[in-house]
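@here heads up, posting the sequence + SMILES for the magnesium ion run so it's all in one place. Ping me if the SMILES looks off, I pulled it from an old spreadsheet.
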Amino acid sequence: MTGSGEGAAPAAGPAARPEQPGPRRDARPPIPRPRRRFNLLRSAAVRFAAIYAVLLSLSVAAAAGFVWWETAGRLSRQIEEAILNDAQALSDHWEVGGVPDVRSAIEERLSQNVDDDAIYMLADPYFERLAGNLSGWPAAVTQPGVEYEIRVERGGIHSLASMQRFDFPGGYHLLVGRDVTLRLQLTRLLTSALFWAVVVVVAVAAVGAIAVRSLFNRMLASVWATTAAISSGDFSRRVQVTGRGDEFDQVAEAINDMLDRITRLMDGVRQVSNAIAHDLRTPIARARTRLEDAMAHAGTEDELRAAIERATADLDAITGVFQALLRIAEIEAGSRRAAFCVFDAAPVLNGVAELYDAVAEDRGLSIAAAVPPSLRVYGDRDMLQQAVANLVDNAVKFSPPGAAVRIAATQSDGWTDIVVTDAGPGIPAADRERAVERFFRGEAARHTPGAGLGLALVQAVAQLHGGALLLEDAAPGLRAVVRLPAADPATAAPAKAAEAAAATAPYGDVIQD
Amino acid sequence: MTLSARITAAAMLISCMVAVSGAQSGSSPDSPPEQITTDTLAYCRELAVRLEKMTGSAALIPATVLRLSTAGRDMCEQGLTRGGIMRLRKAIVLMMHPDMDTDPGPASSR
Ligand SMILES: Nc1ncnc2c1ncn2[C@@H]1O[C@H](COP(=O)(O)OP(=O)(O)O)[C@@H](O)[C@H]1O
Ligand SMILES: [Mg+2]
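bot reply: prediction finished. Complex structure tokens:
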């Protein structure tokens, strides 16, 4: 580190940084739209569509199967039952009177067959006809107990009959059948209906699949476009919310909330790192100048030693700033919340008032603490102490001589307010919001020591406790309110035990900015 | 995706097979089909004789039976064998089970 680069080197850092995203964003090609590349096997949308189509087909197939079972199936079951019943009755006749009895039974059955669908044939061991209404034994019917579907000719018209062969003792054979033309017609009807059903289902499934796919794509396209835009640097993009309040909207809102939070955190980080770079440059440069000056001009060893001591003090102040920053970061991280307990904040407030009493007296100020005898708070005692100390520190620092600083506490409506009021210049309304930012220092603070981290810490503590820091106009002066949620009375028991520690709590880690 | 596509293809194949088998069933073109002998004029006359035997020995002949038997015989002689046979069979059934007469006939008007 040499003298020539003193101003230029640090300046290059923060100056160059904000420029970087600019040209890079401009140089980028326009944000790519979601790729419409149609990879059938990889597309989740197609998968969903296919599942939809298969489910639809399966349900239609189940319905068709049921219809089939109830109509054509029932008809053939009835026919088979009729054939078996006939065969059983004729076999009974065989037992009673052999061939003549069976013949007359067959003739009687035929004479009463109004439906004109019965087929009988009794044959001798050589399959020659003995009785019945079939001209000859069908060659295809070879096995007993098997159902055959045989074509027959009925008055010159071909029709289909279901037949079974039954064997009687002595090598005689019986053939019983029923005309199944009706069932055949029904089957044809059902088949063609089913075929068209399949056609319709395929068409509907295709349309539905396309609809599912486009729905899916439309929903994903927005997320896709947003994430692609963000990954190429455009953090302002958000997922489109349709307003229907459905699951897609919920996902979109969750993503947008996440992006908002990330943006806020990133802004915070950027602001802090810019501020650090900017604000620490001055004290470091000052320490450096001091050392350089001493090197060049110190006549005696004592002068040199004194310069080094002052430079060391400057560097200690810088270290202090870093410690304060780390402390705020630690509080914001929220890990200390695990150690929260219910304690009495009254002694804490009185202790802070006492601590600053001497300093205030030096400046001709008076500190008055109006605190109720017991003030139960759920939280971290040390942190609360730091926060109140920072507020009182500001009040003392910015108050004109002779003014009064008041510390008060009230509990109402489930909130505990800790109020520090002074009669100083106050914070202009325009600055009030920014006053809690890290490193913010107002016009009034030009000539007072500090790094602008005090209120940032107070706010971090208040937010960690689920509360807030309110800055109000006390006309004249500032009214700073640390508003904390009231402690749950049910958990108030450990308050006393922690009290003893409060009296001896060190004030060393109060940020003295 | 591949699985579901396969299922869809299989479903379509099965339905096509069902359609084809439904259309083909019953066609056995090798041998000429056997004849049904109970739709000839001869059988019609046989039935008429049978019915006559039944009515001849019966004490009471329902009007419907008479009407059906005349109509059946006439139709058979005119060549409408199937219709005639059906009427004669109905008449026989009615003779066997008179309580099944659901057709009041022209004789007994309601
Ligand atoms: N009591 C007050 N009266 C007037 N201005 C105040 C008071 N407290 C804070 N401020 C303003 O808010 C700024 C930020 O305060 P703080 O974070 O404590 O930093 P610092 O005390 O180091 O200046 C101060 O620089 C000052 O401008
Ligand atoms: Mg301060």
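MO: The radius of gyration of chain A is 49 Å.
MO: One more: Chain A touches chain B through 46 residues (CB under 8 Å).
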